[in-house]
Design goal:
Layout lengths: L2 H30 L3 H26 L3 H33 L10 H5 L2 H10 L37
Pfam family, one: MrpF_PhaF
GO molecular function, one term: sodium:proton antiporter activity
Subcellular location: Cell membrane
């Protein structure tokens, strides 16, 4: 066996040992991750470790088909990570919308504010001028504003043809 083949064999063994250690640490993080985003990140790391395993096995055996499989796994892993991220984002918006006093958008500023601070910020803004600035029933429309769900005042069937 030549020195280059021995060096390649040693490099493959070291790479497999390092990938095995990172695989075990990633599995530990998936199981014991404190939050859901930590677990998603650990799953993404598992995909990267699997790609590394496939690439090292492709180098060791000499089959180039393994590299094609590694590329396909990388694409699928990316799509899975994006799907998990969208799931986490949607889950956060649903939890935020349960409390009607907080804004429905998830931002760092919205999470830093308490619901009372959010309503006080909304109260500081002056009302916009326009048809909504007049009290209901005072605009000459018979008590019916253009955005109201209440039917106009008057006798039933009057004024509708």
């Amino acid at each position: 066996m030549s020195s280059s083949a021995a060096f390649l064999d040693l490099a493959v063994q070291i790479a497999l040992a390092m990938l095995s250690a990172s695989f075990l640490l990633s599995v530990f993080k998936v199981i014991h991750g404190p939050t859901l985003p930590d677990r998603v990140l650990a799953l993404d790391m598992l995909v990267a470790v699997a790609i590394g395993f496939i690439a090292v096995l492709g180098i060791k055996t000499g089959y180039t088909l393994y590299l094609d499989v590694a590329i396909a796994l990388g694409l699928v892993g990316f799509l899975a990570t994006v799907a998990f991220a969208r799931f986490i984002l949607a889950r956060g918006q649903i939890e935020t919308r349960r409390d009607t006093r907080t804004p429905p958008l998830i931002t760092a500023e919205a999470h830093a504010l308490t619901p009372d601070a959010v309503t006080s910020r909304i109260d500081l803004d002056p009302p916009a001028p326009g048809p909504r600035a007049t009290p209901p029933g005072k605009s000459g429309t018979g008590g019916h504003e253009p955005g109201d769900n209440a039917p106009p005042k008057g006798k039933p069937g009057e004024g509708r043809r």
